[in-house]
């Protein structure tokens, strides 16, 4: 200490640690200034033995140099006692031996500078990168061990750093390929589920867009948009429901132009497929008659299949014959005869 008014002393305690203490006048006690050894790695040659590297920041603290193996593996691995040190894994050959470079090393026996050691190396310690301490140490090992050492592999064409990069690139490429495949599958699935008007157009001819409706040239029958029918029927509300049959429900709807229609929404569980529905549309479209309810159009989108009919203001015949309010026998007979007459006229025409 530079201050002569400060009293200090250097002692060795009962544990063998070297301590420097200074006197505190205010507290009237001796306070510790520094102590040695600071940790287990400062114990000379006792911790990791010959050719062993000590690192107090990791566990186990001892490891052998590359090209060396524990002298007593039982003590080294089972008892975590590295004091027996390490020995060469392979015999040295003067013609093929090389030097292994070790970074950030405390040189044996506290030396520094350019020094040669011709005996066993002891008291070696490796500092962490954050400590910015130590020097480069070159240890002679067999050529076979030199090629297998991590330090040597990292210096050859960057292969040590290249492997993680290759793995990362491979993982990224694999993920991208998987995402692209998934997107392609979703696109194909969506394409197959496009509004089925394309399949009907394939059978019936070309189409064009007129006033929001798709017109098929062969049948001259409009294809309505599903969203338009949803709005027309108030989202297929039960208050708009006119009736229910084996193939689905019929709803009353009002188109944007004000026309009132009857929308028959086929059930999704119906056995009627697209081909059968197309044939039904063809037949009904060709049977337009003043005595029959006219088919105004249809809607086929995804799983939805709907038929749009002319709305009957006076309701159907079964309402009067089998409804809650029964008509008398004479009126029922008159209605039945009129119905039969219309069927006869329709068949003749």
TrEMBL record:
Q: Which SUPFAM superfamilies match?
A: Protein kinase-like (PK-like) (SSF56112)
Q: What is the lineage of its organism?
A: Eukaryota, Viridiplantae, Streptophyta, Embryophyta, Tracheophyta
Query: What keywords does the record list, in alphabetical order?
Result: ATP-binding, Disulfide bond, Glycoprotein, Kinase, Membrane, Nucleotide-binding, Serine/threonine-protein kinase, Signal, Transferase, Transmembrane, Transmembrane helix
User: What sections of the protein cross the membrane?
Assistant: 165-188
Can you name this protein? non-specific serine/threonine protein kinase
Binding of ATP occurs at 264
Under which main EC class is this enzyme filed?
A: transferase
InterPro entries the UniProt entry points to: Kinase-like_dom_sf, Prot_kinase_dom, Protein_kinase_ATP_BS, S_locus_glycoprot_dom, Ser-Thr/Tyr_kinase_cat_dom
* Annotated Protein kinase domain residues: 236-349
Q: Which domain of life is it from?
A: Eukaryota
Pfam families (UniProt xref): PK_Tyr_Ser-Thr, S_locus_glycop
Q: Which GO terms describe its molecular function?
A: ATP binding; protein serine/threonine kinase activity
Which organism is this protein's natural source? Centaurea solstitialis
Record EC number: 2.7.11.1
Q: Which reaction does it catalyse?
A: L-seryl-[protein] + ATP = O-phospho-L-seryl-[protein] + ADP + H(+); L-threonyl-[protein] + ATP = O-phospho-L-threonyl-[protein] + ADP + H(+)
**Gene3D superfamilies per UniProt:** Phosphorylase Kinase, domain 1
Q: Per the UniProt entry, what are the Gene Ontology biological process annotations, in alphabetical order?
A: recognition of pollen
